[in-house]
Design goal:
Strand content: 5-15%
Helix content: 40-55%
Radius of gyration: 34 Å
Distance between the termini: 101 Å
Number of domains: 3
Order of helices and strands: EEEHEEEHHEEEEHHHHHHHHHHHHHHHH
Length: about 425
């Protein structure tokens, strides 16, 4: 085992004393944590528990224990040396992305929970910061001295000599019924830390919601409810809520978000691929919004429509079929023109036989059902341009099976030269 040399004392608290250290083998700086000289049996048990729990948790956002000797007098273990703790990081003005910092911490806690370990003393002082501004910061959870296995080690937490950081972040049930405190106690502590990261204010004796961006208030309130049942059930649920907030467009009405993205894309010389992907995703996510589908989808500018049709054929096809099912029946007289113009543009941009067939079948009946001459003109133009035998036969079948549609569309169709198989199913007289 590597040898370590103890340097000056860094800190002391709880049942441990921290010292600067050096790995003799390679001169790597480290931190040695010793059990305090006047320890008792409870202190020894907690110290050993910290080593046991922290050793079994292998994760980038949990401080590793690189060596230990629990038989020494006093027992000790070794950790990598951090640049500072999170409170020093915040007070030093280093932070520029509170959510990134928080997500790193939360991922470490989630890993601990997934392995059956709760921390029970999450606070900025127990979050270590590694790296540098130039190389990038790394945030890791440390000090599992009060941690326990969820199904074991129900040692009572004493309230005497409790540091203020612990008091500010500790869940109420840890004071009243510590034996029953579970992972939701850590969620409470995470909520308190997130408040401090976002506001720069100490979260005790109360939290001032007026200094928090409105979009974060719900998450913070939910995480720090007094009753565990009212909090998030897991760290993952809390992170998912924050992820939703980061996607601001999810809080817009679909039509507003899509129209905004359309305007941004049209202002560019060449729309960004990421914007087009987002636009297609927004449309797919909003197909159950009738107003958006009826009023925005068919009015997508032609340059963007061409990109969506060609670049995302499956996704566009699904959205188009949903539009045809939901938005083309029981429509107003004027809206028939919107449908016809949209279908003509889609017909020109796609080579998908199924979509072509949908368009031809819909327009053949839309005109006579609503007596809209513009629809008849569009239908006739599309039919006159057909050269594919499959689509010609589909058109013939539609007109043959629906004499009323054939009779109504004949005045528009007769202005064009048509394949004989289509002319043969048109009525002889007007």
């Amino acid at each position: 085992m590597a040898k370590y040399r103890k340097g000056k004392q860094i800190n002391a608290g709880g049942f441990g004393v921290l010292y600067e250290g050096i790995c003799v083998d390679d001169n790597t700086p480290c931190v040695l944590k010793y059990l305090k000289p006047d320890y008792d049996e409870d202190d020894l048990r907690r110290f050993k528990r910290e080593v046991r729990l922290q050793t079994q948790l292998q994760h980038p956002n949990i401080t590793p224990i690189v060596a230990s000797n629990l038989d020494a007098e006093p027992p000790w273990f070794v950790m990598p040396k951090a640049a500072m703790n999170l409170r020093q990081f915040v007070s030093g003005g280093w932070m520029d992305d509170a959510l990134h910092v928080f997500k790193c911490i939360a991922k470490g806690v989630a890993h601990a929970h997934a392995n059956g370990v709760i921390h029970r003393d999450l606070k900025p002082e127990n979050i270590l910061v590694f790296g540098s501004k130039d190389d990038g910061w790394r945030f890791v959870v440390a000090d599992f001295g009060l941690g326990r296995k969820l199904d074991r080690d129900t040692t009572v937490i004493t309230q005497t000599n409790m540091p203020m950081g612990s008091i500010a972040c500790m869940a109420p049930e840890q004071w009243t019924s510590p034996k029953t405190a579970d992972a939701r106690a850590d969620i409470y502590s995470l909520g308190k830390m997130l408040y401090e990261l976002l506001s720069g204010r100490f979260p005790h004796p109360y939290m001032d919601w007026s200094v928090i961006e409105r979009k974060y208030v719900y998450v913070l309130r939910r995480a720090t409810q007094n009753q565990p049942d009212d909090r998030y059930r897991s760290v993952s649920d809390m992170l998912e809520a924050l992820e939703l907030i980061s996607k601001g467009t999810l809080f817009d009405k679909p039509a507003t978000a899509i129209q905004s993205l359309i305007q941004e894309s049209m202002a560019q010389d060449a729309p960004e691929e990421a914007d087009m992907t987002q636009l297609m995703q927004l449309i797919c996510d909003s197909t159950n919004d009738y107003a958006m589908m009826a009023n925005v989808f068919p009015r997508i500018p032609d340059p963007l429509l061409a990109i969506l049709v060609k670049r995302y054929p499956l996704e566009f096809g699904d959205a188009f079929r949903r539009y045809d099912e939901d938005c083309t029946t029981d429509v107003t007289f004027e809206y028939c023109d919107v449908i016809a113009d949209f279908y003509e543009r889609v017909f020109d941009h796609t080579d998908n036989d199924e979509i072509h067939a949908i368009i031809l079948k819909r327009l053949a009946c839309l005109g006579p059902n609503n007596n809209r001459w513009h629809v008849g003109s569009v239908f006739a133009r599309l039919v006159s341009g057909l050269s594919d035998e499959h689509l010609i036969l589909i058109t013939r079948e539609v007109l043959a099976k629906q004499p009323r549609a054939a009779h109504w569309n004949k005045p528009y169709l007769k202005g064009y030269t048509l394949p004989k198989v289509i002319r043969d199913v048109l009525p002889d007289s007007d």
